[in-house]
Every structure is written in structure tokens, then in C-alpha cells.
Batch of 2 targets.
Target 1
Amino acid sequence: MSVAISLLRASHPEPAVAVTAVAALLSVGLDRPVPGVVATAATVLASQLAIGWTNDAIDAPRDALVGRTDKPVAAGILDRRLVACLGAIAALATVPLGFLSGWPAGLVATLALASALLYDWPLKSTPASVLPYTVSFAALPAFVVLGAGKTPPLWLLAAGGLLGAGAHFVNTLPDLDDDVRTGVRGLPHLLGRRGSLASAVLLLAATTALAFGPPGPPPPLFWPTLAAALVALGCGWIAMRRNPSSRLPFLSVIAVALIDVVFLLVSGLNLD
């Protein structure tokens, strides 16, 4: 049981569950039958497990160096090779699961996975660190929409990409100092803590894209949605001010993503 819990912790469960839920909700909103929704969720969950386990396996030496006791591999609770093997198995499973939704969707799911793994190594330590987040988050709605037999509109891809770029900055903020000590020099590290706070603009721009992207005026729910997103980000910002190493800012990004998806579904999923 303790090994299972540690493996769960090493998989980065919060984003894994949230991203899987976003994909499943979008799939339901597109009227996919139950097998299609299950295939979508299984693909995204497998890819998230692959990304999380691979990340912890690769980062284990650096995490151990800075004393990350919250990381089971770095703390010596889990064998690094075991986690790396599980990450590889999950990655291999993602590809055939993605193709259950059709060839176009399968190719996009494979692209999203490859992009995210390239972040784990080597792009995390380069100024291009934001690109994998942008590409993979934009690919997520594309995968879901293509799986439903529809063409993803550009505004939906833009919203996903903006959300991903903002998530990258917010996710990096608590670890900026430790990353610098271990030689990581991604874009957030070059911009510094204050520069990375501009991520809030990217996240709110994602919400705005969902409202103004489809033809016609924005739905009446846009303003309450924007207010809810502001509250979530505000709570994350306050938590970061009180504790720079807090994970609440990243949880606020997850909240914004879920708020955006609910807004999209309640307002009517117009993909014109």
C-alpha cells in the first residue's frame, strides 16, 4: 500500500486528475458515446502518468540535492528505475489508446505526449521551456475534438496554448530558487519571479479567448466566469506572497482550467 501511495505521489496526481477531467468533460460536451469518453480519459490519464513518472525519474538527482522530501524517488522511497520503467510503459500505452479515437486524434495525442516528454528533457533547462506546455495544452482540446469527428477551431487551440503557457510559469514559481541552484535555466528563471507573475495575463487571456473566439457576442456567463477566474488566481497570488514555495498557485491554475471548461460547456460548445 505504501508503494502504491508513493507511486501515486510521484505521478503528480493533481494535474493528472484535473487534465483527465477536462478532457472527459469536453468529450461529454461533444456528445461522444460512453466508450469514446472512456477512451479519451484513458489516453489522457496514461499520458499524464507517463509525464509525471518520467519527470520524477529524470529530476531525482536534482530533487535529492535540494532535499525534496515530497518526492518519493528523490527521498529514496521508490526505486528510480522502477518509476522510469512505469513512465515508459505508460507512454507506450498512450499511443494505441489515442488511436482508439481515430487516426487524426491519435497523431495529436502522440504529439502532445512527445512535446511534454521533451519538456522533461531537455527543454526544461532552456529558454524554450514554455513551448512544450503551449503545444501540449493546445493539443489537448484538439485531440478531444478530433476524436469526436469535428475540426478544432483556432480559438480553442489558442485558449489551450495560453492556459498551458501560464501554467508553466505558475508551476515553476515555487521551485525557482532550487532550480537555479541545480542548473535549470528555463524561461521563467530568466524572467525572474516578478516577470513570471505576468502568467496571470496569459491565464485570463485563455478565458477571454473562449468567450470571444466563437462567432457572436460573448455569452452572459463570461463575466461571472472571469470573476471566478480572478478570485482563483487572487487566492493563488496571496498564497505565494505568504509562502513562495506554496503549491496553491498551481492549484489555482487547475481551478481556472476547470472553470473555463464548465463555462464552455454551460454556454454551449460552439465550434464554428
Target 2
Amino acid sequence: MNRKTYDAFAAFRDQRDREIADMLGLDMGNSRRWELKRAIQQRYRAQLPKTGIDAVLRMIDHAVKVAGADHLEFGSDFDGVSGMVPVGMEDVSKYPDLVRGLIDMGSADADIRKIMGENLLRVMHATEEAAEK
């Protein structure tokens, strides 16, 4: 999320969250409550300046330069983002576009593999080994 988008989001976040909480509290028995929640989220998302996958790619590139590819992991947990994602990153089906973008930026294949899952596996294995001791 770029600064302009973040500032717009921050300006209405509390109001949006109150509106969602109020709706969920009033309609506890409504089988459509999650659909209604999503509609509120989408209404607020429409107010944001559009941010594309290029912003995500720039963020990853910056993080690699600052921390190194060994310390990054791109996860797939979209819960809690309230639909406030860059255009082109709406769900995991867009990950090939992310990988293509990293390739086009000149990222090393080894770094892309680390960011897209190898780092997670490395940390999980290290955690298992530590737990066995």
C-alpha cells in the first residue's frame, strides 16, 4: 500500500470497523452477515486510490535490499485484510503474476524461491529440530 492509499484507508478505518461491528451485532442470526460484511468492506475499498501489484513488488525489492531474501516470506493468509489489497493481488491465484513481476525486476531465482516458500520450510524444519532437543 503506498502512502496516499494508506492515508485514505487510515482516515476511514475506524468508521468502517464500527459499521461492520454494528451490522454483525445487530444481525447475529442473519445467514448473510458475512456477505453484508464483505459489501461494507468493498464500499470502503472503492474509496481508496488504486494501488497495483507494482507497489507490492517495490516493497519486496526494498525488503530484500534491507533485510535480505533469507528473511522474507510471502504468505497467503488474506484473513483480516478486509479486502484492502492492491489490484492484482486479490487472492493466491494472482501469485504467478507476483513471481513474473519479480522475474521481470531481475530478482534471482534462488531469492524468489526463498520468498515464495523455501524460507518458511527452513524455519519450520529448524523449529521441529529445536523442539526435538
